[in-house]
Structure formats: structure tokens, C-alpha cells
Fold this protein.
Amino acid sequence: MFHVPFSNIFDIINNNYFSFFNCLQNNSFFECQLKYDPIISSLWILTFIIIYSFVWSLICNNVSKVDQIWSITPWVYSLHFCYMFYLKNNNKIHIRLFFMTGLMILWGIRLTYNFWRRGGYGNLISHEEDYRWPILRSKMSKPVFFIFNFTFIATYQNVLLWLIALPSYVVMQSKSHKLDVLDYALVVLFILFLIMETIADQQQYVFQNYKHSLSEKERASHSSPSIRDGFIRTGLWKYSRHPNYFAEQMMWFIIYCFSIVSSGHVFNYSLTGIVLLILLFQGSMAFGESITKSKYPKYNEYIATTSQCIPFGKSSSLSNVKSD
């Protein structure tokens, strides 16, 4: 069941990463791409993005640069692998990889739009910073946060975005190109979770806009418990405290499943991406909820009655829960 195809992947990276840079001294990036394994050129794209994220965060004094490209870079890597297969195989299209990339682009378009309408892009230089970063910055000295910015925010998160797209590389390398019934099932599941995330984000967006349109006095006397208490707990949020995060993780698990169908093995090295993504979401939810609990006293009741991520189990409305 456990299989690591192309076990020399680390040797490929170790032996070719820096020589690719030497190639660039006398050749265009496009020419070097054709001479090397596509994973090497994808790593150089990753390197450029890490440098961009870090340097631009210093120039703009805003570390949400990775947030701006979160919905873009994974499908860029997948499109890169798709294009490299096309060029290196006599202009042949890898159907499974083509479908995977298409699904990632759909995911990216939706998430980019959602981020844009919340003011995440601004004018690209001046824009909203994720509310968690200033809080974290206040808990660290400037040198420590500088190191944290480079190692975790700019580097680790971008590496993670490269890793969650790595199933595309596994699929590209496999000999199985045509779609079968399992592929179609994965496509349907991906779209269902994409719809779920869209609905969850829309519900949150409408709620936040309406809440912020009210005065403190109007919120305190509002007929809706969610408005009075400051956080949404209706719709999909009745069944999960983070339904959008659940759908997000499931979509990337489905992307990994394409590599299972393609390779015929349950485990391969591209599993690393989804595992690290789940761990990142665990940390993000824990940190975010620690902030929310400090702002909204009733949030502890919500925690006691509603699943954190997977929509199951304790999901009763808090309107029937009595305060201590």
C-alpha cells in the first residue's frame, strides 16, 4: 500500500537545483525548463515567490503578501507541470493533469474573488493585513518577528503551497493518462466541496457586512442571537465552527486522491502537502479562536455545542443553550 514512486526525487533536486541557475547564465528560463526535470524549474519559481513575499512584506510593512498569492500559486505550479508535459511529449495533453489543473483554477478564481471583495488586495501596496499578524507581532520583539516572517510566513507557507500542488507532478510522471470512473467521482466531490466553501464564505461575508452596518446599541438589542453575540452560528456555521476550512482541506485531499488513482498506490511523497496543510489549519483555528473567545464571551458556548471543523455531532442551535 505504501509506495514512493520516483524515489530519486531528492537526488534530482540535489543534483540539479543549482546547476539550473548556472544554465540561466547563458540561456532563457524557458530553454532551461526544457533541459531539466520540471520539478527543478517549479522550485525556482517557488524561490522567486519566496523572495518576492519577504522583500515586498518589508517594503510595505505588511506580511499578508502570501495571503494575496495563496489562491494563485498552487494552480500556477500545476499549470507549469501541465505545460511541461505538453512540451516534452510532442504537444500531447495529459487529460488527468489537465482536469486537476482546471479544478485548481476554479478553486483559485473563487478564493481570489472572496479575498478581493474583503479588501485583501487593496492597491497591492497598501492593503488589509490579516488580523492575526498584528496580534502575533505585538507578542514578539522586532528581530524575532523578522525571523518569523522570513522562516514561516514567507518561506514555510510558500513551500506548503508548492507541496499541496505536488500531486500534479506525481500524476504527470505516471503512465496513466486517461480518466476513469474514479476520476469523475473525484471531480464531482471537488465541485461539491467548492460549492460548500462558497456558501460558507458567502454566509460569513453577508453576516459580517450586516453586523458592521449596525451600531453597538442596535447589535445589543437585535433579535438575532448571532448579531447580539458577535459571531455567526447559522447556516453551515450551525454545524461547524469552520465549515469553509473543512471544505478547503477536503478539496486538497481530493487533489491528492488524483495521485492515488494515477499511481495505484494509497501513499506517495505528495501526501506531505495535505498533512502539513491540515496541521497549519489546526494551528490557525486554535490561534484564531483564542482571539475570538477573548472578544466574545458566548463563543465558549458555541465551542461546547458545535464541531470545530468536521460538520457532525454537536450542532444544536445556541439559542436554546442557557448561559451559566
